[in-house]
Predict the 3D structure of the following.
Amino acid sequence: MTVLPYNRTNPPLDPPAQCRNRLMWQVSRRLFGDHQPGPDGWCQVCRPYQYYPCVGRQLADIGMEAAHLVPDGSPWRLINVSPRNQRR
Ligand SMILES: [Zn+2]
């Protein structure tokens, strides 16, 4: 398992400093906040169809992790440009 710079059970609202894709983090963090377990163990949004962790929560976890990774070929890959190669 990858060591991530945040608590998986209580991720911060703002993207951590190591985050590579702020939009991915913000969408995933919002999804995380929406899909929380109720006292009976069912997701409060997905009840009565999915027990917690539901698909929404699982996607949120994957998205927050993906916001820190830069897999080759992904459409959200950020290209680091060295200062001497930047256009002025
Ligand atoms: Zn849910």
